[in-house]
Amino acid sequence: MKRAIVLLSGGLDSATTLAMAKQEGYDVFALSFEYGQRHTIEIASAKNIAQNFDVRQHRVAKIDLRAFGGSALTDSIDVPKHRSEDEIESKIPVTYVPARNTIFLSYALAWAEAIGARDIFIGVNALDYSGYPDCRPEFIDQFERLANLATKAGVSGERFRIHAPLIAMTKAEIIRKGGELGLDFSLTHSCYDPGSDGAVCGECDSCRLRARGFREAGIPDPRPCLSSS
C-alpha cells in the first residue's frame, strides 16, 4: 500500500478527505495541529475520526501561532458572527490564520519524506468557503512545485503529489461524499468559537456554512450548528 499523509483538523472537510484517501487504498498517516487555536476541541474530534478510520498513525504537532497572532482564531480578536452569505463571500475574514496551510503542508511534507510517503492530502475548498487565499488551486499547485524543488526525494526524482480532492466541491457535495463513504458526522467539529463545554455557537461563518451544507445536501446534521434557518 502506498503511504499518504492526510492533514486532519477534525472538521467535515478534512474527515471527508481522509475517507477518500482510505477509499483510494492509501495507508494513511494523519497529522493534526495544536497551534494555539481557540477551538482546541477540534483536536479531540480529529483523534476520534482517526481512530474510527483505523489510520496507521495519528500525530498531533504542537506549534504556537499565537506568537504571531493576526487572526481571530489565535489572537484577542472577536470571531465574526451572524454574517450573511454575501458578507462571508465578499472578503477574507479575520478568522484567516496567516500562512496556516503553508505551515501545515510544510510539516506534512517533512513527515512524508521521513517515512517514504509521496502523497499528501489536504481538505481545502475554493468554492463553499470563506475566501482564504491558501485554499485556492493556485496555492496547491505552487506548493507541489515547491515540494519537488525543496526536498532530497524531490530532486532525486521521487515526485510528491499534493491532493486536494474537495477543491471544486460545494459543502453540500462534500457532505454527500462523506455520507457515501460512511463518515460519522457526529465525530466532526466545525465551530470556530465553541463554549467551554464544547457547545457550538451556531453563529460563526463555519457554523453557518456547515448548516447550509447539510440543508442543501438534504441530510440531517447529528451535531447541528443552527437550530433553524
Compact summary:
This protein is an alpha/beta fold. It has helices at about 10-25, 40-50, 85-90, 100-115, 135-150, 150-155, 170-180, 205-215; strands spanning about 5, 25-35, 55-60, 120, 160-165. It has a single domain (about 5-215), classed as HUPs (Rossmann fold), CATH 3.40.50.620.
Proper CATH architecture:
3-Layer(aba) Sandwich
Strand order of the largest sheet: 3-2-1-4-5
Count of individual beta strands: 5
The residue ranges in which pLDDT falls below 50 over 5 or more consecutive positions are none
H and E string: EHEHEHHEHHEHH
Q: Figure out the total of helices.
A: 8
CATH class: Alpha Beta
Q: Name the helicity range.
A: 25-40%
Mean pLDDT: 93
The name of the CATH superfamily reads: HUPs
Terminal CA distance: 44 Å
The profile of the biggest β sheet is: 5 strands, parallel
Hey, roughly how much beta strand do the residues contain? 5-15%
Rounded Rg = 17 Å
SS-derived structural category: alpha/beta
The CATH topology annotation reads as Rossmann fold
